[in-house]
Every structure is written in C-alpha cells, then in structure tokens.
Amino acid sequence: MNETSKLLQDMNDRSREVFRRVVEGYLAKGDPVGSRSLTRDFSEKVSAATIRNVMQDLEYMGLLGSPHVSAGRIPTQMGLRMFVDGMIEIGDPSEPDREKIDATLGADASDVTGLLDRVGSALSGVTHGASLVLTPKHEAPIKHIEFVSLSQDRALVVLVFSDGHVENRLFTPPPGQTPSSMREAANFLNALVEGKTIGELQRSIAQQIRQRRQEIDRLAQELVESGLALWDSDTENTERLIVRGRANLLESEAEAEDLERIRSLFDDLERKRDIAEFLELAEGGDGVRIFIGSENKLFSLSGSSLVVSPYMNADRKVIGAVGVIGPTRLNYGRIVPIVNYTAQLVGKMISNQK
C-alpha cells in the first residue's frame, strides 16, 4: 500500500468529504475553496469552524495548501494524486464527446499519418488541452541498441533498425543502474540482437536466464550434497547459496573452482535479469497513466499533467500512445475516459487495415 492509499484509508468520513469537495471545487473553477462555501451543502450539519479545523488537518497531512493568506485551500500535488488514485469515478465518455471523436477519426484509416494527425486534432478539440501522439512502433529487426542515462530515474533507449529507421524511447530504468551498467547491458544486447525484433530478443534472454538457472541448480545441488553449502531458495528471485565454514578451507582445487563457478553464474544471472527488465521497461505500456505536476518528467513541466494511454495492434502489442497535456487542474473524470476511448479506437482502426 502506497502513502496516499494509507492516508485515504485512515481518514474518517468527514475528512474524506471535505477533501473531496475541496478538490472537486478547485478542479471545476480553479479557485481556492473556503470553509463557508463547504458548509452550505455539506452532508451533515457542521459549523464553518469545524470545517476549518478539518482543512487545517488536511493541510498538515500535505494534502491541501494555501496559495495565499486566506481561508481558502487548494489540493497539493500529493492531494491530487490521492484523489485520482482513490476517489475519482471513471466512467465512459459522454455521448457528445464520443460522437466528436468518432466523427474526426471516421475517415479513411489506410493513411496512418493522416489518422494520427486527426487523432491529435480530435483530442485537442474535445479536451481543450494539448495532445500527445506517439506513432506506431517499428517492427523491423534491430541493428543496434544504445541506452543513455538522462537522470537518476530517466533514461533513453536508442533503437537503430535494419532498414535504417531510428527510434528513441524514454523509460524509467530499474533502481541502482549507472551509466556503466547501461553500457554493459547495451554491449550484451548488441552481441545477441542481429536479425531480431525486440520481442524475439526478450525471448532469447528469457531462454538464457532459464538455462543459467538450471546450471546453477545442478552445481548448487552437488555442493549441498557434499556438505560445502546450504541452498536457500524461497522464491525465484531470492535464491542464495549459503557457504558453510568448511568451504572456507577447501581441500581440493576442484571444489574451489565449483564454488567460484557458481558465484560467477549468480552474477551472470542477475545481470541478465537486469537486462531483461531494461527491455521490458523500454517495450512496455499498460492502461491509462496519469502523471501530475513534477511526476511528469517527460516534459519537466511541474504545473502540468499528462494523461496518456497506449494503443495496440491486432496481436495485442503496444505500438504507440495518445494523450492529453494540460494544467494540473484537469477534469480527470472526463479526460481519462476520452483518452482511453481514443486509444482503443485508434488500435482498432490500425488493426482493421490488415
């Protein structure tokens, strides 16, 4: 359970209602919401002073803030994140919104570039925000891969395809990665990549991981049976070889070599797992994602939000994405269904070309 989920769970009904009404009032009008306006249509009979006390508690929790010295409050970035994750009600797009999108995209879909251009126009027009459209991913075999570290939690993968096409993709690398480890990952992948798509490369690495695990299991069993080590393997990702005292006084070179060999295999297994995770992060995408304020590292616009959803081809592979960029004061309950509906529609139209 993350921090905002726990905060929401710990709040009583009154605090939850005050918080929800402040956020909804701010999203609707963009102005701070005061205690007096909340008392007028609150679900229970409470005084403005009681509401003010609740708002102060919510401010202390980091969920509300005061833009200036006044009784009014607005949601903080953390407050908006909690509202979006735990309180927002996401339904279907309204009939008018759906009709506008359908009308814009209803033309000939054989021209993908034209289709995506219309998608951008449709999203901008319906949502009154800036649109984001990522074109379909290239499916040709890869010729070369390069990872570029942009910051501690942001990296770029450069894919050079065999037909000369070059594609850059942003992703969040696994924790603890360094420019050096990224170079090592790229070198390893480039030795395997010839003639393979990303999907084929992932399968190749998965097979190597399975082979490495089998080799470790066989060697470990021999060491355990000889009494040199203890095998501790609760889950697939936490197996350990606990070396016993006698192993520190190995009598033969063969035993020492076996122990060193298994250490080397463990290192190799971890490296391949990291690389497999790199590929998965560079390739993956799931559902509608909402990035609020400074979470939106793609553009470094701390005062903006990005609502984005991938679209898939007929084989259920993520091939691109559509989204809307706007102020943090977006009407998320309306925008999320529109982006999701548009992404599904684009995926269907591109799939139906074949």
UniProtKB/TrEMBL annotation:
Domain of life according to the entry: Bacteria
Keyword set, alphabetical order: Repressor, Stress response, Transcription, Transcription regulation
Boundaries of every Heat-inducible transcription repressor HrcA C-terminal domain copy: 115-336
SUPFAM superfamilies, sorted: GAF domain-like (SSF55781), Winged helix' DNA-binding domain (SSF46785)
Pfam families documented for this protein: HrcA (PF01628)
Family as reported in the entry's similarity comment: Belongs to the HrcA family.
Record function comment: Negative regulator of class I heat shock genes (grpE-dnaK-dnaJ and groELS operons). Prevents heat-shock induction of these operons.
The name this protein goes by in its record: Heat-inducible transcription repressor HrcA
